[in-house]
Write a structure and sequence with these properties.
By secondary structure, the protein is α/β, with parallel strands linked by helices. 49% of the residues lie in helices and 15% in strands. The protein has 2 domains: 2-180 and 370-386, Rossmann fold (3-Layer(aba) Sandwich); 186-367, Glycogen Phosphorylase B (Rossmann fold, 3-Layer(aba) Sandwich), CATH 3.40.50. The chain has 16 helices and 13 strands. Strand 11 (284-287), helix 12 (298-305) and strand 12 (310-313) form a beta-alpha-beta unit.
Amino acid sequence: MNILIIQQAPDLGGAELYLVDLVKRWSKSGNQVTTYTNFEPLRNLFSKNGAISDILPFNLDIMGNIRGFVKTLLILPLAIPWYRGTLKLHQGSVDVILSAGQTEKLLITLLAGRKSPPIVWLEYPPMERLLKRNLGIPKFLYKLLSKKASRIIAISQHTKKSLIVKTKIDARKIRLIYPGSEIADRKELLRSERAANAMRKSLGIGRKRVIGNISRIAQEKGQEYLLRAYELVKKSHLRTALVLAGKGPDEERLKRLLKQRKIHDVFFTGFVEDRSAILALMDIFVFPAAWELEGFGIVLVEAMLARKPIVAVEQGPVAEILEDGKNALLVKNQDPKQLAKAILKLLSHPGYAGKLAKRAHERARENFAIKDSAVKMLRELREATRKT
């Protein structure tokens, strides 16, 4: 099967890395994947994992803030010919188009002609907030063009419900396929441990127990709540360190907060390509986000597969992935005291933490393996081609 993906990306987040994993699986099983993206690191990953990848020369944002929306309107006269030409170029060679970004899916679906391959939408976030923006124009376009999409794949029940309730899309058109991650073999686990030990040395963490998070450093991801919780943890567990992996616009503000509060042993690593190693470094993984646009949280699955005890805020899709007291500790809101209490419980009861981690690992293997996600997604793409 020949698959075309046109994907804008602001950074390498969970959504982008999940798409890379899908491309890798599909390419290995003999499918041809062609990708276009505006983000060079993502383009390199696509190429490295078997795709034919080229540059998307535009950065458009129909569903962003009003400034981005106006900028998009000004660029559209240049972008439309490119999108139309690209679709025409692949018209006879592509079996199906997979579109994940909001702007791309609207433009591609709008410009696709009668002879266009079927278009499948991959939907990550709940749509309510996005569709309210920019005078309701995105909502009008979304509801209109969703009728032309062959099917819509939602990555969580949370997102699926939002699509049905807020956009009135026919539920029969929506499929639920949970994202997945790679299950490491023994060789990979040993490599990750060695890399984690080297990272521990280079950061100067020593033998401290590590609490950690991997995410874009942004207010909506909740790192400030984790920092304030860690300040409380540090009072009774001095031999601990906090590692925040990722980069983003909130990093400098958080570093200033650390200085003001005199919180020590906090390490910002920047973007880390070797996520397995950074997870191996951590003794407890914390997911402090309570973002209304969170569609899933693929890093939670990565932490589960890495056998890490997890503390998370119980919001949106998190309750679909984890169960409080069974395979993780979930707190009701972004309260630093509640986060700290859960972290302290895991630090003080390593046997209990190990049981939670073991059950989380088993659940992830059964429900969130990338090999299963890739097969299910490919099946839906094939079905879309049969119904045109």
